[in-house]
Amino acid sequence: MTDTATLTAGLHKALPPIAYAGNPLDRADAVRTDPARLAAVQAAAGARLLVLDGLSPEFSAEGGLVWAPLAAAPEGADLVFLGLDPQGHGCFAAVAPALGGSTAPAAPNLRAMLDAMPAADLAIYGGARSLVDWHARHRFCARCGHATRAAKGGWQRSCANAACGAEHFPRVDPVTIMLVEHDGRLLLGRQPRFPAGRYSALAGFVEPGETVEEAVAREVLEEAGVRVRDVRYVASQPWPYPSSLMIACHALADDPAIAIDHAELEDARWFTRAEVTAALEGRPDAPFGAPTHTAVARHLLEWWMVARG
Ligand SMILES: [Zn+2]
How close is the Cα of 136 to the center of ligand 1, in Å? Predict the structure, then answer.
């Protein structure tokens, strides 16, 4: 018997890997929570520091990440323990005291360089960026306003006010992103900030008190006026701008009538299989531009071509 999960797993093997996934470092939770072990990893020869310029990586001649000896960390920086490399060396990132943090997406020129980065390095960078950025934006306690201190190898911040003592943990914000299908066509939309001609899957944050399925249905109804059913999980992707977890889904619609919310979308349309194929192949006659290969939206489109063929 082939259940849906088995079928989905088999399909994913036929598809390109998901960008920002597949971090090869051992997260070594036991080291994080043991100050003596963490100090030993930090002091060992071979401990290394991910070189960042603010939140952006330095690029090696090959387009990969650049590492320095851990001693190169700026004075007074909080160190984030990223994990152990396959040789057992500790890998760290530094949160410089003056770093302000950002919730903005990566600038287009940086995105282009990241799109070309080797997959394992991109995964390490994504996790490091989210964590370093979280530290920079959470220097003060959300409960009492007192300063916070990094703890557990950078996987926690603790309020320094003894009367409060709140513990804060790195955020992961769930975002649904979905292909809606009707009669063999897909509903795709474009936001005003997209490059010219680009259409992509609709997306939106999961709100408190709703399931992933409910968030998918609400977002599609809000943005495009389309009611969906049979929401199904397809894949997920960590997206470090600043800390999203993209939850990619597929859903069916019975009525294709579209009512666009122009505060959210510039346009939304149904595209045929032939049109999606042309876009994924980058053909000059394609009616829209497909998302870049690091976007889970593109993975969803490629999944659909295989799974719903
Ligand atoms: Zn506090």
Answer: 17
- For residue 147, report the distance from its CA to the centre of ligand 1, in Å: 7
Cα of 138 vs centre of ligand 1, distance in Å, is 11
Question: What is the extent of the structural domain holding 270?
Answer: 172-307
Helix spans in the chain (H)? 4-13, 29-32, 35-43, 108-115, 119-137, 212-224, 273-280, 296-307
- The rounded Cα 274 to chain-centroid distance in angstroms is 29
Q: Which residues of the chain, if any, have pLDDT below 50?
A: 1-2
One-letter amino acid identity for 258?
Answer: I
- State the pTM of this model: 0.93
pLDDT tens digits along 238-270: 999 999 999 999 999 999 999 999 999 999 999
Domain boundary among 137, 158, 187: 137
CA of 27 to the centre of ligand 1 (A): 28
Q: How far apart are the CA of 127 and the centre of ligand 1, in A?
A: 26
CATH at 219: 3.90.79.10
Q: Given this model, what pLDDT does residue 102 score? A: 82
Q: Are residues 177 and 303 in the same domain?
A: yes
Distance from the alpha carbon of residue 139 to the mean position of ligand 1, in angstroms: 11
115, 137, 159 - which closes a domain: 137
pLDDT value, residue 98: 87
